[in-house]
Amino acid sequence: MDSANPALPNTTESPQPQLTTQPSRYESQKRRDYNNFLNYLKTHNTPPLSLPDCSGAHVIDYLKYQDQFGKTKVHVTGCVYFGNPDPFAQCGCPMKQAWGSLDALVGRLRAAFEENGGAPESNPFGEKAVRGYLRDVRKWQAKARGVVYKKKKRVVGSSNATEAAVSLINFSNQASGCGVGEGSGGDGTFGSITYAETNDRIKGGLV
């Protein structure tokens, strides 16, 4: 009587599923903005323009064209609410794109232009005229709406300061015989030195 042959293990590897990464919200918005601008060049110019023929003047025209989709009330000079940040009634002043929205739009288009093979030196979105237009929009909207645009200050050397603080705390702990994870309490102290004292030393140039 023949004995049955043992079943051989299946060595065929099942195909691994392909992982597809979804583009970020910023990347998706940047692609839409870029395609919308290309479409604008073709449909709102006679004859239709291509991107290599585009200049800063065309970019400014596009930014003005975007105002019709804006949701920010910008008071005109003769309006009784001109310069009033909190008008108590409606007025007939036009709605425009906020300066911040236009500035972000230009930033995305500028990046998309170079990512699609455009040379930085020929980037129409980075031309001086475009930057000047954005500055004028910011200045006028601030005056008309009675708001102040504050420029964010960039913290220089913050990572170095953090490293210096950690080093100073570790040095103090070693000197006091306190190990990491010991001597820390709810009063903002770590070992024999507080974080507040560390920050004061950093500001004073002692680190």
Automatic annotation (TrEMBL):
A cellular component term, taken from the record's GO annotations: nucleus
Comp. bias regions, Polar residues: 8-26
Recorded GO MF terms: DNA binding
Residue span(s) of domain ALOG: 25-153
A GO biological-process term: response to light stimulus
Subcellular location: Nucleus
Name of this protein: Light-dependent short hypocotyls 2
Lineage: Eukaryota, Viridiplantae, Streptophyta, Embryophyta, Tracheophyta
